[in-house]
Amino acid sequence: MQPDYDDCWLRYDEVPEGDRRESYRRLCTHAYVAEESRELGAVREELRRGLEGMLGRDPHLWQHPPRTVDGFLAVGTPGDMDVVAQAVDEDRIADLDDGGYVVTTGEWEGVDTLVVTASSDRGLVYGTFHLLRLLAMREPIADVHIEEEPTSPDRLINHWDNPFRGSVERGYAGQSIFDFERLPDLRERYRDYARLLASVGINGIVLNNVNTGIPGREEGNGAMEELEGWRLLETRYLEKLTGLASTFRRYGIQTYLSINFGAPEKIGDLDTSDPNDPEVEQWWAEKAEEVYDLIPDFGGFLVKADSEGQPGPYNYDADHVDGANVLARALEPHGGRVWWRAFVYGSHKDRAVQQYDTFEPLDGEFHDSVTVQVKNGPIDFQPREPISPVFGQMPETDLGLELQITGEYTGQHVHACYHVPMWKEVLEFDTDPEGHGKKVKDLFTDEGTGMAGVGGPGEDRNWTGHYLAQANLYGYGRLAWDPDLTTEEITDEWVKLTFGTDPDVVETVTEIMHSTWPAVVDYSTGGIGLMHMMYNGSAYLENHYDPGPEEWPGYTGITDEGIGKDRNSRGNGYAQQYPEALAELYDDPESCPEDLLLFFHHLPWDHELGDGRTVVQTLYDNLYAGVEETQRLRDEWRTLEGEIDDERWRHVAERFDEQVEHAGIWRDRLSEYFYDHAEIPDEQGRVGGDD
User: Fold this and answer.
1) Do domains 19-148 and 154-215+225-499 have the same CATH topology?
2) Domain map of the chain by residue range?
3) Residues 6 or more apart from 216 whose CB is under 8 A from it?
4) 3-class secondary structure, 373
5) Where do the Glycosyl hydrolase family 67 C-terminal domain residues begin and end (predicted)?
6) Which of 415, 463, 421, 655 has its CA nearest to residue 9?
């Protein structure tokens, strides 16, 4: 029975008649696949699914090399299969990083072969998905040679699922796909989710919300219910997770858990969680041993501590090093890691300054098994932010880059907003252009470093709430695997895999995707460095979807005289947290990049920018331009009617209708807000004036 949810980019549509299909059939109709592991079972299943769909016939999966055919596919390590050993340099394969693979052609006893090989079974999974991606994109394979290794050793997805409520914090695609109460019973959707993640190279999944024990959102009866993710460390729930971990293991994906720092008190029999207490250290060591007895390849713990009500080492006059290291010592004998989130705030009036002030002095003190997980920017996944000054300035600490896949502040998967161009700006950022720094992407190549993407799919048929939002999950995985990939390369892959290879469709969808993020930045911020412009409200009504700039005067810095925040040498000194060249760049409004100008500077409303327009006029113009661009993108999508299936076309068309209307609300609300303070009308008569 066909599952009632979308295949995303693993559609495997049939290749049309022609030379390409004949080439594919000659080399892939017969497949000789090793059988030594559970991962290779997943490889065989994926080949059967993919090749049958694309070649229009069921492939023959052999247990030995076929001798009477024109060509065949061989998947295995050189040590498993002589066919493979003849086609590749065994020493080179042995030297590949974990997950690396080779896809190449060769010959065995006069028969042409297409070979997928690797040094590990996980690499064979990735290599198989790469081969199927080539076929799905209609790329030639008759004389192919591809060698790939993951740039980042750790490529995680952080789910914010609330296990005992079925909800997903910042989830915009329905309820959680994980039914923790029914585990260890497994759903087919778990396997298909593992397939999606493995196909883009993700190798770790954190199953639950980082908020494991703070007050939940207000319930309808006014009561406050506590999030109880901390309970997953209880023995009865760890036992339930074994089947789910096994499902992900088949696809080379390790299982992680978000844990509550106060667990020794919550589920143990201790009266403290002080990281410097010997009994607490012993409790964590015993709990880690229990976890690994049940899940031998367990990845480790993700921890949010001392932030937004979560307990942490500060409760015990300890610091983040003490808190992270006690957990690391517990996991070290088993090869696990602690991912310790750096998103902490509360002791500073401006949260931008706190991460660097908190963590940079601790550089070099964290255990080798700790990764400090740092958000891309200093505020909170805003539509555009400067890059966190932590990057490049903690050389003795393993860092992880935290990106938000889900669209919390970019339209919540009602609005189309493609995050890959934003992430490329982050990854290509030079952390010290005149010193000895590196680009952000170059920081994640060592053991213990990597990326973490926040936001997993939900129960919606399309997984992500918006068919176009699938591109953010795809793009995150591809960039975590290879941050040198360009936006254009990733988009081309995703569009062809998702909507087919018709040139007109590819061109139209590609142009739409590339244009969405700049439009969202313009109509939701004004485009020159403002942030936190959204409605926040009460615990129950918080939505981060509607405009509410009046709620964040500390971030907008708005007055009747001007707007922006002095995060410079004349203000709170945030700019001076960067290396000298960047500090000088940001400190001067004449050299500060315009798209970050009001983040670093409070300027008069009539201050002139480089093109002669004033600050307030630029804000007006960008707000209107963002809405006009969104209207254009809606019209472009409408031209695809009849070119793609009706379900997906209609869904996206309806979403664009909502986006255009809502973008207009943002434009009008922000324009009114700016005008109320500046009392300067728009030069084009759209805001203020006699009416």
Assistant:
1) no
2) 19-148, 154-215+225-499, 522-565+602-678
3) 162, 165, 224, 225, 226, 227
4) strand
5) 464-686
6) 463
The answer to whether residues 80 and 36 touch, using CB atoms and an 8 Å cutoff, is yes
What does the alpha-carbon distance between residue 298 and residue 260 come to, in Å, rounded to a whole number?
17
H-helix or E-strand spanning residue 107: strand 101-108
pLDDT, one tens digit per residue, over 509-561 is 999 999 999 999 999 999 999 998 898 865 445 688 999 999 888 889 999 99
CATH superfamily of 19-148: Chitobiase/beta-hexosaminidase domain 2-like (3.30.379.10)
> Residue 308 above 90 pLDDT?
no
Among all residues, which ones are annotated catalytic?
A: 308, 380, 408
**Do 493 and 478 touch, CB atoms closer than 8 A?**
yes
Q: Is the pLDDT of residue 648 over 50?
A: yes
In DSSP notation, 139-204 reads ---TT-EEEE--SSSEEEEE--EETTTTEETT--SSSBS--TTTTTS--HHHHHHHHHHHHTT--E
User: Domain 522-565+602-678 belongs to what topology?
Assistant: Alpha-d-glucuronidase, C-terminal Domain (3.90.1330)
**Which residues does 157 contact at the CB level (< 8 Å), separation at least 6?**
197, 202, 204, 205, 206, 405, 452, 453, 455, 456, 476
Give 298-361 as a DSSP string. --EEEE--SSTT---GGGGT--HHHHHHHHHHHHGGGT-EEEEE----SSSSSGGGHHHHHHGG
Task: Retrieve residue 307's tokens.
Answer: 């932030």
Distances (CA, A) of 340 to 259, 392, 482, 541, 594: 11, 18, 23, 30, 33
Mean pLDDT of the chain: 94
Q: Is residue 399 helix, strand or coil?
A: strand
Pairing assessment for the beta strands 562-563 and 603-604 based on DSSP bridges = antiparallel
Stated pTM of the model: 0.96
- Two tokens at 659? 């986006």
372 three-class SS: strand
- DSSP per-residue string spanning 56-85: SS--EEESS--SSSSEEEEES-TTT-HHHH
C-alpha–C-alpha distance, residues 158 and 162, integer Å? 12
Structural class in CATH, domain 154-215+225-499: alpha beta
Q: 31: which DSSP letter?
A: E
CA angle 255, 258, 263 (to 5 degrees): 125
DSSP 15: P
